[in-house]
Amino acid sequence: MNKIALVLAFTLFSINTSAEPTWQGTGEYKDDYLVGTIHVGDERLKELSEQLKKRIEAVDVVAVEVDLANVSALQQQQIVMELAMLPRGTTVTQLISPVVATKVNRYLQQFGGEIFQYEQFKPWMLAVMMVQMSYQKMGLVAEHGIDQQIIEHAKKHNKTILELETFEQQLNIFNRLFDNNDSIDYNDMLLDTLEELNTMSDMPQVMLEAWINSDISAFEKIYDTTLKQTDYDKALENVLLIERNVAWQKKLNPLLKEKSVMVATGTLHYIGPTGLPALLDGDFQLLKK
After folding, report:
1. Model's pTM, two decimal places?
2. Rounded to the nearest 10 degrees, what angle do helices 203-212 and 216-227 cross at?
3. Residue 277 and residue 147: Cα distance in Å, rounded?
4. Percent of the chain scoring above 70 in pLDDT
5. Is the pLDDT reported for residue 30 higher than 80?
6. Residue 23 or 288, more confident
7. Residue 163 Cα distances to 5, 67, 69, angstroms
8. Helices 73-84 and 123-137 sit at what angle, rounded to 10 degrees?
9. pLDDT, average across residues 57-77
């Protein structure tokens, strides 16, 4: 996710003490779990906790956002070209203000790049790539993300994997963001991204430590700070979290009645009155550390 929140105080912890955010169903849903994930990680997250492994092994189905193993590199490239590239004759600098273009270029130069190298990408894709650059610089990789590790462990134990959406649907979120909201533009997104990358650079580490310690109050603060302040924040909240949660609710509720299920999605999908614990059947309760 490319919204970065205010910096919180943090202390380093070992993954051996992890208590990943987990909700358990009650009554007839007591064998069902909701696990908040984090999509990129560092060395501290290179292995799942034994507790999480045992819960994966105990359920029938593991539901995840998307399993990229089902999309070849060529297919991913084709989808990116279809959804994230500008039409011939249009460039990114034509769609943003000169002031914003200058600021973006200054940021890219820190990584040895120039904005003209990204002229054919839609501005939202440029923002996503800028965040990816910052993650790589900090040593945060998808291989150490919890989603990928859960999928691999589930496959190792022959669990059914349910994808809640496709790679194409996931990438198209940002097209929908701008297609459905006339009150925001590409400048809003790029300025918001630059502000967070430049002034809140510690936030990815804060999110990692909040996840390791199952600190839901920290995620609530992140949610409120990054997705509740401006028109852009609220538009992003709706398309990135609320709409997807509602769509997933329709898929998950029938499954929860029939099978034992672990749902594993980004932790912000579990926050607040529109989060999955509130939407799904099963009266899911946050487990204590």
Report:
1. 0.90
2. 150
3. 18
4. 93
5. yes
6. 23
7. 28, 6, 11
8. 130
9. 97
Cβ(56)–Cβ(262) below 8 Å: yes
How much is the pLDDT for 4?
A: 32
As a whole number, mean pLDDT of residues 78-93 equals 97
